[in-house]
Amino acid sequence: MGFFDFFKRKELAEITTLRKGIEDRDKEIELLQGRISALSKYEGIVDAEAEIARQVSEAEAQIASMQRELNEILDNAKVEFEELQAKRKEQIDNLTQQVEALSAQYSSGLATYKELEKAIALYTDNLELADFGVYEPHFDFDTPGSYKDAITEIRERQKNLIPEGAVKGGDGISWNGSLSQGQVMVRGIKKVMLRAFNGECDSFVANVDWNNVTKMEERIRKSREVINKGYQRQGIYITEHYMDLKIKELRLAFEYKLKKHEEKEEQRAIREQMREEEKARREIDAALAKADREREMYEKALEKARIEIELVEGKKQEKMQAKITELEARLQEAEANRERALSMAQQTKRGHIYVISNIGSFGEGVYKIGMTRRLDPLDRIRELGDASVPFPFDVHALIFSEDAPSLEAKLHKVFEAKRVNQVNLRKEFFKVTLEEIEAEVHKSNATIEFTKTAEARDFRESKAKALEAEQRSTPYTSAFPEQLYG
Questions:
Q1: 39-68, pLDDT tens digit by residue?
Q2: Strand 366-372 to strand 394-401: parallel, antiparallel, or no bridges (unpaired)?
Q3: How far apart are CA 108 and CA 91, in angstroms?
């Protein structure tokens, strides 16, 4: 309880006591007035009236005294309240000033912290701290060799700049009163500055990668800033032009790495395509050989049957004729298979576009749009789902095309902005709808049938088993499949 609260309670108690005394006096006055009324019947008793008047006068005087005391208490309380209020206001003002000072101190500390955090991130290869933006290529050379030539040229420009334009300042500095000695000292300082700056830049260039390229640029700028600051009083500084050449070298080195990586990816894709075409060629050769064997076998069987039918009569002849009809049909089928395989071998652009999904691995609404020239395109799809993903793919469409590479390239171009992987364009996964794919295929006059619902049998059964296991372990709670499989 505060001082003011204690004082207030004390004054209220005193006021209550005074008011009760006044009420008691009022009751006595009422009794006296009653007695006056009763005694008014007796005219002869004058002393009683005088006594009553005296007591009433005393009571009124006492009430007036108590009222004065009450007013005095209230006045004192008001003065003390105002003094207390002024004191409290002074305390509040002091606290407000302290809060404002602490707030300013916090803001300053926070700004310092952010600067230090950024400086730490600049020299820490941590992906979570790498918030310096996404690198945008600055060059457009076709081959890694072109980048190497550009790096050589930029280093030659740096070398030519060193004698005059890499480090400037310090022209009027003398030593022991000698300008020549001062300039010797300045040249030494410039060499030290260049050696330090070049050493750091070489380290940045050697270690540049996709996850730190923008940070490495900032490190080059920071290195120049720190070195220049150390010789600010002498007026000696590494020029911005020289720093820009170092940044350009860094970018060339990084994009050279990118081009080398792209070249490797292209070679890997070519090798994959060659393996796929080799498999297709072997399948076609095997299909041709099988068709030739079957044709030869059925031709021999048919020739034998035609000879035998001349030697039999009646029902045996009817049975033999039925056998001849069947053999002729088999022979036609073998010839058709041979023609189809031969046509596939002769026309290298014929193939199938497949549209497949794998919701257990990639989620809903993600489709792979690829191409295969295999005689049975499902063989290729089964290979894709063998080991690289936890669940097999579901086939939504198989589209036969006389120019499958062109149709595949067209679909990839149309859905370019919806690629799941925006960096590696050889990854053929797209966040699209089957309706969008179907509409684009129809524009190319290709025949297509879609299966809109993904069976995803292994995935759905795995979810059901996981849910069942969860329910067995916690019989009084239930878990949604999404909680287990996302």
A1: 565 555 456 667 777 888 888 888 888 888
A2: unpaired
A3: 26
Residues 6 or more apart in contact with residue 298 via CB below 8 angstroms: 327, 330, 331, 334
Q: Are 358 and 393 in contact (CB under 8 A)?
A: yes
Query: CA-to-CA distance for 274 and 269, rounded, in angstroms?
Result: 8
Q: 467 vs 116, 366, 392, 393, CA distance in Å?
A: 48, 25, 21, 23
Highest mean pLDDT among 129-143, 283-297, 317-331, 403-417: 403-417
Q: Is the pTM of this model over 0.85?
A: no
Burial degree of 352 (CB within 10 A; 0-12, 13-18, 19+): buried
Structure tokens at 109: 């500390």
Start-to-end CA span in the chain (Å) = 57
Rounded Cα distance between 141 and 254, Å, is 13
Q: At what angle do helices 179-207 and 240-309 cross, to 10 degrees?
A: 20
Residues forming beta bridges with residue 398, ordered by sequence position: 354
Q: What is the DSSP string of 394-406?
A: EEEEEEEETTHHH
| Closest listed residue to residue 448, CA positions, set 395, 405, 376 | 395
Residues 362-396 have pLDDT tens digits of 888 899 999 887 878 888 888 887 767 888 899 89
Which positions ≥6 away from 177 have C-beta within 8 Å?
none
Between CA 223 and CA 200 the distance in angstroms is: 7
Q: Is residue 130 predicted with pLDDT exceeding 50?
A: no
Whose structure tokens read 């600055």?
Answer: 138
* Residues 456, 449: Cα–Cα separation, whole Å: 19
Whole-number Å distance between alpha carbons of 386 and 394: 13
**Which has the closest alpha carbon to 81: 4, 14, 13?**
4
Length of the chain: 486
| pLDDT tens-digit readout, 397-408 | 888 888 888 888
Q: Are 372 and 399 in contact (CB under 8 A)?
A: no
User: What does the block give as tokens for 405?
Assistant: 């590479």
| pLDDT higher than 70, residue 346 | no
Tokens of 390: 């936890």
